[in-house]
Amino acid sequence: MAESSEVLNELYKIILDRLSSQREGSYTVKLYQRGKPYIAQKVGEEASEVIVASLAEGKERLISEIADLLYHLLVLMAVNNVKPEEVYEELKRRMKG
Ligand SMILES: N=c1c2ncn([C@@H]3O[C@H](COP(=O)(O)OP(=O)(O)OP(=O)(O)O)[C@@H](O)[C@H]3O)c2ncn1[C@@H]1O[C@H](COP(=O)(O)O)[C@@H](O)[C@H]1O
């Protein structure tokens, strides 16, 4: 099992693996088959669910919605060939000590 700090990288690798193997029954593959506009729409929906949970639902629900959003965001990154390291680099570049 990945260290906490490595979870997003690990999940991204699993997503890439699902996309290259086209594994049957994979939700990631189902998203991919529906196309980029659908994946982008899902990210929007999941972000809305995070907003609602943060304002009107408990912490447990909020954590679950954030996890859904992060997963869909990683799928969106994968289909657009954006690697987590590239996002980390951008965040580091902006980071003020
Ligand atoms: N982390 C996730 C993850 N988070 C959320 N989801 C799925 O995202 C969907 C969100 O629910 P929604 O109600 O919005 O969508 P839905 O009604 O199920 O489906 P839609 O038809 O609306 O797209 C659920 O089906 C969840 O199972 C995820 N599906 C997969 N993963 C991980 O991704 C990896 C690859 O999974 P597979 O591609 O399924 O093998 C594995 O490590 C999984 O654990």
TrEMBL record:
EC number: 3.6.1.31
GO biological process, one term: L-histidine biosynthetic process
Subcellular location: Cytoplasm
Catalysed reaction equations from the record: 1-(5-phospho-beta-D-ribosyl)-ATP + H2O = 1-(5-phospho-beta-D-ribosyl)-5'-AMP + diphosphate + H(+)
Pathway: Amino-acid biosynthesis; L-histidine biosynthesis; L-histidine from 5-phospho-alpha-D-ribose 1-diphosphate: step 2/9
UniProt key word Acyltransferase: no
Keywords linked to the UniProt accession: Amino-acid biosynthesis, ATP-binding, Cytoplasm, Histidine biosynthesis, Hydrolase, Nucleotide-binding
Gene Ontology CC terms, in alphabetical order: cytoplasm
InterPro entries, alphabetized: HisE (IPR008179), PRib-ATP_PPHydrolase-like (IPR021130)
Keyword flag Lipid metabolism: no
Domain of life: Archaea
Record-level Gene Ontology MF annotations: ATP binding; phosphoribosyl-ATP diphosphatase activity
Pfam families membership: PRA-PH
NCBIfam families attached to this UniProt entry: histidine_hisI
Stated family: Belongs to the PRA-PH family.
Protein name: Phosphoribosyl-ATP pyrophosphatase
Species in which this protein is naturally found: Stygiolobus caldivivus
